[in-house]
């Protein structure tokens, strides 16, 4: 699940601009209050638990802090370390670990983000204990053999080098580096060729000793498992790790900078353009309003640039969902000057006009429908519960979710367009002779 950051199909979100009007109140059925989800502590590990009758169990262990735990010099060390743990532990040598995972048919996942690294398992009731034993052994007692460290390093370096071959991957990587210069989010969660190349075996062992501590851990479990079972497996495994003194907090917001463009000259069939801007902290009123404003803007760009003008096959205005949110603009086009000018014109429309209230209400309905559909799986529910707790400070924030969206007015859309969709930092990959730099700097 994404915290409502998925952009709905653009054809569904085209809106009508008008004078302010009273908001329509077509309501969908209210969702029952969540009374099953509980939060408790097991030996110093914070646990969010949503039991259910399903056979599937999802258990995600979140190592909080993300890129704020590292620097440019050791960026990517956390996912690097977790990848190596698949190559063997003291209890599970490499061949036994592989054989047992194949026999169980379960999965252990790693997902590094700006705010945390998720290390999780996907199992059934019957395979949970055995899979948890492997996951906890990987977390607590990796062998970190030199040959395996170098093997994983080569694999990661190959993956990092390949983003130079993909304009979209290069654009995405550079966009964070440029837009978040001077902020923790400028650090790559997966690392760079320079950082991955210099991380030593001693660095990995030291990081494991100091950073794999209980205070950084949030365990979120959804599925057919009891509290008694969780308390049993956690107490005899990861609850024995050092406590540490980490305290979660949202990172600082991004200072404002004038709009600017960073150009990478490439000979390509089309030009790849991405702009990023800083948004509000998660959980605030503007956070919800900017999600809807991003969808409105995306729909307008799709309608005008792709459908009406046929200037691109891909255009979007995504909402970037993090503890400190953000947004962006993305397009591939052979006519960058005209396309950027249209983007600016559409943004001016949002800033000076107001969305038709009935159209906004329909958009909210679509968002809510998509949200509840996406939260049908245990995996998506685990992600949502994590963000509910960390962003809102309340595991039952879903109960306010619909109200927060319905409270967004046409005037809110106009206000966040004025306040947040500005000072855009651009990355351009393509024909440098066609860069519409002066137009980009007017955002």
- What is the alpha-carbon Rg in Å? 23 Å
What is the residue-averaged pLDDT? Answer: 90
**DSSP strand (E) fraction?**
15-25%
Order of helices and strands: EEEEHHEEHHHHHEHEEHEEEHEHHHHEH
Walkthrough of the structure:
This protein has 443 residues and is α+β, with helices and mostly antiparallel strands. Helix content is 42%, strand content 19%. It contains 15 helices and 14 strands. The chain has helices spanning 77-84, 94-104, 128-140, 146-162, 167-179, 193-198, 201-211, 227-235, 285-308, 336-352, 357-374, 378-392, 398-406, 410-419, 437-440, and strands at 17-18, 38-42, 45-51, 56-64, 107-112, 116-124, 217-223, 260-265, 271-281, 314-316, 319-320, 324-333, 354-355, 425-430. A six-stranded mixed β-sheet has the order 2-3-7-4-6-5, with helices on both faces. Strands 8, 9, 10, 11, 12 and 14 form a six-stranded mixed β-sheet that branches. Strand 2 and strand 3 form a beta hairpin. Helix 9 (285-308) packs across helix 10 and helix 9 packs across helix 14. It is globular. 43% of the residues are buried.
